[in-house]
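INFO worker-7 received task bundle
INFO bundle size: 2
INFO processing item 0
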Amino acid sequence: MIKILHLSDIHLGSSFPHGRINPETGLNTRLEDFVKTLEHCIDRAIEEADLVLFGGDAFPDATPPPYVQQAFAKQFQRLAAFNIPTILLVGNHDLHSQGTGGASLSIYRTLAVPGFIVGDTIETHRIQTKNGDIQVITLPWLTRSTLLTRPETEGLSMADVNIMLIDRLNPVLEGEIRKLDPELPTVLLAHLMADRANLGAERFLAVGKGFTLPMSLLIREEFDYVALGHVHKHQNLNPENNPPVIYPGSIERVDFSEEKEEKGYVLVDIKKGKVNWEFCSIPARRFCTINVDISQTENPEETILQAIAQKEIQDAVVRLIYKLRSDQIEQIDSATLQKALEEAHTYTIVPELTSQLSRPRLPELGANNSLDPLDALKTYLGNREDLKALSSEMLDAAERLLNGEEIGFNVEDINNVEKKVSQLSLLS
């Protein structure tokens, strides 16, 4: 059996707004978090893996700062030192904005790092491992320029281009499949959006518009395992496991949309016709949202403090969101809230004003008041200066309605009301 470590969507250099500067290193603590989780993956690969498959999106964009590139290279260089072959697939974030070339990963090809393959084309690679040979088809992130020319797509909708792209991809992928050695285990390594996938933060991070590919392209008897990248939430798109179609997900939380997602990588044992896989979780930094509505409470600050106390915030990235009325603003002491959150790794405080239309204008008309309808109308009209001239007629009509009487208005009544409304309009 050949053992593979499959990871994806490292996004090294993301999530800086949720970190702070480490005074000892001068680096953002979120960068250090990402390096730590990547190191965890590489440690496990050195311990057990014969082959490492990276499913794409090494950085947030194609031109990361040199110190971020260095942090990435330092970890993957350890694989080369232990002679563990590695494929680095090109994802959408690894491309130039024009969609050509794996800019952030191409240096590994240029330097001819031993055992490293940069997967930026649709191609089949035969790889020797210490436990036997394996073949891997690389399918990098597709743009319309990958298989189509500009004149062919000019004037077409995105949906039409998607159909045309799939039509072009089918024979290309079929050509690679026909080259396969039927005696060797086969993996499809692809960075794509499959039509069964549940999205995560990648919907907000995507560079340019991508294409959705059907599962029929992926579920083929020639494949023993399909290793995907792009979607940040771990999932198996083919529960029948013939073959397993696996997104390992990202290795760290990029933002609060991934708050409840488990992060990790996948270990795969594979030989021709047989595969076992296991998701391995990583202790990524926790994100925690505290959401509290204080707009109807008598002690708003105390309510917020109680909500904070009920959450495990130590060393977490915390977001406190509280809803309040405008007249409650002065009742909240920011320093008190900050002190309550000081155990968090970092925190943000987001007050949100509730709509004033959703609450009673008058205390007498509150939800717990038992005024009957006529008294309620009297109270309401007594606080409306613009309706005082009409109040007697409105109260009289309301009383007759409550007594079950029919109300009829003659022309003179209507003219009197119109006259009073006109007078009020002139006064205002």
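INFO item 0 finished
INFO processing item 1
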Amino acid sequence: MSTEYLWYIPNTVEPGHRGDDTKKGWGTLDFSTELARAAEDHGWGGALIGTGWGRPDTFTVATALAARTTTFQPLVAIRPGYWQPAHFASAAATLDQLSGGRLLVNIVSGLDNAGAYGDGESDPARRYDRTREFLQLVRRLWSEENVTFRGEFFGVEGSTVSPRPYGAEQGRTPRLYFGGASAAAEQVSAAEADVQLFWGEPLDGVAERIDRLKTLAEFLGRAHAPLEFGLRITTLIRDTTEEAWHDAEAKVASMAGRAESEVFSHQRRAVGQKRLYDLAQRGEVLDSCLYTTPGRFGGGGAGTTWLVGSPDDVAAALRKYGELGITHFVLSDTPYKPEVVRIGDQLLSRLRERNPV
């Protein structure tokens, strides 16, 4: 199985995302295109495009970037409460067909500013039930004609998607990524996702979750190809170990005086986020170079824990995840423009010496 390396495009109109000091260009096509082309030119397969109400629409941005690149694969984050499944299945199939099969999809079930776009479902368990039904219907719409479906949350009558996804006649569809650490989330991943994404947990936590998900997939009678696994994490690398830790500690010091934002407070209540924040109680550095301190000072999601070190240090750490079965890596650091080049050139070349794509 080949290994995939993706970057991250924040997709926001506001400067300062995760401490990026770039002042101009946020939310413009030129800025996002520069990031996408830099990713394409420096060894990345594509990039996750961030989502959230109040940000540019991810599908619109992904379509524009696919038109301005050649091999770049947009990993488009979408929310079932924002999309109806037939509308999404059609939009995704169209973009996938137009781009020659480059679309990747990240399904997000967590709460956003749901009321702003009319999503009235706030119960986490119900949201995951809805996501599972959403994915079941989307898969049918991508592969069948005249689909009639009456579920608890969605329904269609005689629905046929045209065009189909690129390569649909050979059974191919866009790859579906999914996150979440709760029991309800793992039910969705084990049954319907193609790739389960983990945040930056230590190796023992990731190994435990991989084993549990494999067992659950077998118990549920998974109907699709075996579930694959991915890691979404910040990677801070410098030429030497000492320089990397100096800069990592300086970044954390600059974060320390900032108050927690409302979004950060919401994130702390998610099961996966709580797992990350609890890691700081085990120590500031876990495994070889997993830095847990950023989570104490406002780092959320992929910014909660960082892999810190020289290119060799971080490559060795990522190989350990690979030995557990991780084959999809979504990496980033800020400022995004120089780091997509630095990490692409210094880290990916080392990883590919032993993990040819």
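INFO item 1 finished
INFO post-check item 1: The CA atoms of residues 38 and 338 lie 9 Å apart.
INFO post-check item 1: Confidence is low (pLDDT under 50) at residues 259-268.
INFO worker-7 idle
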